[in-house]
Design brief:
five-stranded mixed sheet; 16% strand; 5 helices; single chain
């Protein structure tokens, strides 16, 4: 079975969980109905995660919660490794095929939540020696909950599913450390290298019920670079005699 078939099996439940109902071929399960049945638990998961955010590389309670949820889902194999506060799991379909991966991030941000939601975060932590609030202000609670919902949907039809889906719960995305941690620990070793990796990203400019995409890059990166500027002091009246590092 070509990887395109596996991709279709992954994208249909993602689309069903995320937004509008798509026309489905009779050859595929009714992913819209399956997503509807998974929705209450997905909402419950999202609200727990939203109320219990943790900073990067400190996502221990989040990891326990996600591990417990994944352990409840039939057919899911948790892959043990040096994933830090992340998790890796795989769901194998009964039909032959390759591997695709689906990734979600799990860490929160050092922000005080003032939304007034009944499940708003009241978590506090310390960062750089000062007390900070902690909040899922970047949607990682939603990303992780939708991953759980997708696992449940695909688990219910794994007897008809081609290939396998590798699920990656990435810690420390906000500080750019989690992906490297998983790679260095061998997340794609032992025949787990996927032919494609997917992720769902919530976005405030896209209306509820819609799914957006674009070719190429679509968001900021945490790549860094450093430059060293050597200036030469001077007086504001004689800028031509100085090398102003601020302007540079």
């Amino acid at each position: 079975m070509r990887v395109a078939s596996i991709v279709a099996w992954l994208l249909f439940p993602l689309a069903a969980l995320a937004g509008p109902r798509l026309p489905l071929s009779s050859a595929r399960p009714d992913f819209a109905a399956l997503a509807d049945s998974a929705a209450p638990r997905t909402i419950e998961d999202r609200r727990w995660l939203h109320a219990h955010p943790e900073l990067s590389l400190r996502e221990r309670a989040t990891q326990r919660f996600l591990r417990d949820r994944l352990s409840e889902i039939p057919g899911v194999e948790l892959i043990e490794g040096d994933w830090g506060t992340g998790l890796v799991a795989i769901l194998r379909g009964a039909r032959p095929g390759g591997i695709v991966a689906y990734r979600a991030d799990i860490d929160g941000l050092p922000l005080v939540e003032t939304t007034g939601l009944p499940f708003a975060s009241t978590v506090r932590d310390t960062l750089d020696g000062r007390e900070v609030g902690v909040m899922h202000a970047c949607g990682h609670d939603l990303h992780a909950a939708v991953l759980l919902g997708t696992v449940r949907v695909l688990s219910s039809v794994r007897g008809r599913m081609p290939g396998s889906v590798l699920f990656l719960l990435e810690p420390a995305e906000e500080v750019g450390a989690g992906a490297r941690l998983l790679l260095d620990a061998g997340v794609f070793a032992d025949g787990r290298k996927p032919e494609a990796i997917f992720a769902l990203r919530d976005h405030p400019t896209i209306s509820f019920g819609q799914v957006g995409y674009c070719p190429g890059w679509s968001a900021a990166s945490v790549d860094e670079f450093r430059i060293r500027v050597l200036g030469k002091g001077g007086h504001g009246a004689y800028p031509h005699r100085a090398i102003d590092p601020v302007l540079i």
